[in-house]
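Why do we bother with holo predictions? Because pocket geometry can differ from the apo form. Keep that in mind while you read this record for pantoate.
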Amino acid sequence: MQIITSITSMRSLAGSLRQEGKRIGFVPTMGFLHEGHLSLMRAARQENDIVVASIFVNPAQFGPKEDLARYPRDAEGDRKKCESVGVDIIFTPSAEEMYPEKPGVFVTVEGLSDILEGAIRPAHFRGVATVVAKLFHIVQPHRAYFGRKDYQQCAVIKRMTKGLDLDVEVEVLPTMRESDGLAMSSRNSYLDAAQRKKAACLFRALTAAEELVWSGVREPERVKQRMRAVIAQEEGVEIDYVEAADADDLSPLATIKGSIVLLVAVRIGATRLIDNLLVV
Ligand code: PAF
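The structure, written out:
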């Protein structure tokens, strides 16, 4: 396994690999890898000749009051995990390498970036779309893999890829969960034992809402109310939003029909958690 930190080296290696006719699968990450990331890497391993994983904690997607400084990092653990699932190349540039100057060039996916997570974290999706576009140009993958846990991020990246005519297939794979349903996330490491227990209420809320939809309820407000009620049973879990939205463009629904996505975002102490469930 090769570890590359320079953009020039990564770009030139990717170019040579493509010239040799190799298919490049790419898993962009911010490190502190868990089973969710590894499932993406395993899929990339099965479907491509070369697997590249990037590990880069992207400053451009963190707000000034967010957790950039304390975002968990484990370079050595990540290296071993990548090796264990057959990653060929880790691309792990520094912030100075990716942004030698204060970023002044951004990719913005309008509309989709301003709702839900975007309404609470302004500039977050601009930072995500910008870094993913840069990484796509550097790594030159045929196919890139993302986890459905970040549903809105996946929608933004798909739209960015299409809008910029980037020749990359964006693959979205299911959320990996702990045994109590909590979606795997690097940020779960912030939770103490009591908070960790409470965090399972996100999945309980989503599955309770899903049951209502399956039982034939068509009013989004009733479904959202059910999510709020389940979360309210856990003291100290503050809701940022619950939503029932169109699965494609995430617009809020007047009535539940077709493919929908149930979304939830909460704060437990200083930790923000998001989750979702696709109901098709
Ligand atoms: O989901 C993440 O880890 C990040 O948002 C991503 C896609 C690697 C961009 O920094």
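The chain is about 40% helix and 20% strand.
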